[in-house]
Write a structure and sequence with these properties.
heterodimer, A: 142 residues, mainly alpha, 6 helices, 0% strand, globular, B: 236 residues, alpha/beta, Rossmann fold, seven-stranded parallel β-sheet, 48% helix
Chain lengths: 142, 236
């Protein structure tokens, strides 16, 4: 007899941003300022073909309680691997995620090496991400 | 070791009030008898020098002339500098700032304050954020909210980037209320500072009658009061 999941116990679908969790957190570290969500969305689109709304990245971090972590200012940059491959919920490695992780790590290493020669990151007015009243209240509450 | 403060007007967008703020600062330094070295880094228009002819000229495109700001502070004993940037010089100055040895300068007592003028125009806020993304909290920021076009500056107060900047860089804020356009136009056309008008012994049509002079004094006092409140960010 098939087991039916009750609506409130429906299996959770992993976010498509999950493989990029550490990568996003790294970009959100103050260096000296966090990379805007809109720019992160552009990077994910350009490098991995992943289309995502900037607000969704913020929500992804918020629901996982990672917003405080992204704002930590220990100043010490994570060395070595930026991306830790995650197992799926059955404990199996997911090859696609591991491959994406290798790419992220390689690019992070290249980024570190080229940092001195990087062009200036110039934000444009189109990058500005306007918040709703509710989002502003949430930020103030923190 | 002498403490040194280098104040620079950061806004690279034209017409946001960089020179206006520099003139108010120069008037305030004069009032509190602070000895300041004025540098006009707008070699094209020389607006600061039009009002304050004793300001030194500097070419923002010439690295050695911009370096002179730091060298003068370090070697020649200047402890208070005020430099007025040229509009549109953001990329050159950002590249220069990125190469500054902030830690070594801090050890020698040299600190920077960036005066960033913003208006309701989002581009004025974007130019501020560019500075913040490159320099971060290695300098002190005083954000001048220029209410020339209104008080609702949403690009700073209602965007994730603007609020990130406020959280990370902890700027101080100064409000620049709108001066009556008629007075502003008269003062500009005569190349006078506000103090120059207030203290003028000669009558200036439309500016030096008792009522107008009183309004100008009140306006200036409101700005000076804010400078006074943030003197730890402005003075050495």
């Amino acid at each position: 007899m098939p087991i039916r999941l009750e609506p409130h116990r429906r299996a959770k679908v992993a976010s498509k941003l999950e493989p990029f969790r550490e990568f996003i957190l790294e970009l959100r570290q103050p260096q000296p300022m966090p990379t805007p969500y809109s720019v992160i969305a552009n990077i994910l689109k350009a490098r991995y073909g992943l289309t995502v709304n900037p607000g969704s990245i913020h929500d992804f971090l918020r629901v996982r309680g990672l917003l405080k972590r992204e704002h930590r200012s220990s100043g010490k940059k994570a060395s070595g691997a930026y991306f830790q491959p995650k197992s799926d919920r059955h404990g199996k490695r997911v090859p696609q995620i591991e491959a994406a992780g290798r790419r992220v790590n390689q690019e992070a290493a290249q980024r570190e090496a080229q940092k001195e020669n990087e062009p200036l990151h110039l934000i444009t007015t189109a990058d500005l991400h306007y918040l709703t009243d509710e989002e502003i209240q949430q930020r103030k509450a923190k | 070791m002498n403490a040194t403060r280098i104040n620079i007007t950061l806004g690279t967008k034209g017409g946001v009030g960089k020179t206006t703020v520099a003139l108010h600062l120069a008037d305030w330094f004069n009032q509190i008898k602070a000895d300041v070295w004025l540098v006009d880094l707008d070699e094209e228009n020389g607006t600061l020098r039009r009002f304050l002819p004793h300001a030194q000229h500097g070419d923002v495109h010439n690295e050695s002339e911009v370096d002179a700001l730091v060298v003068a502070a370090d070697e020649q004993g200047y402890d208070l500098l005020l430099a007025d940037l040229k509009a549109g010089s953001g990329v050159e100055m950002l590249a220069w700032f990125r190469g500054l040895p902030f830690e070594a300068l801090a050890e020698r007592g040299i600190r920077f304050t960036g005066f960033a003028c913003i208006t309701t125009d989002p581009d004025s806020v974007t130019t501020l954020l560019r500075w913040a993304y490159v320099i971060g909290n290695r300098i002190d920021y005083i954000v001048v909210r220029n209410y020339r076009d209104g008080q609702e500056i949403h690009a700073l107060d209602r965007t994730s980037q603007g609020l990130d900047f406020i959280e990370q860089c902890r700027p101080r804020f100064i409000e620049l209320p709108q001066l009556r356009p008629r007075y502003q136009a008269e003062i500009n056309s005569r190349s006078l500072t506000l103090s120059g008008v207030i203290r003028s012994q000669d009558p200036i049509p439309g500016l030096t009658n008792i009522m107008v002079r009183h309004r100008l004094k009140e306006y200036q006092a409101a700005i000076f009061k804010q400078f006074e409140a943030h003197r730890d960010f402005i003075l050495p």
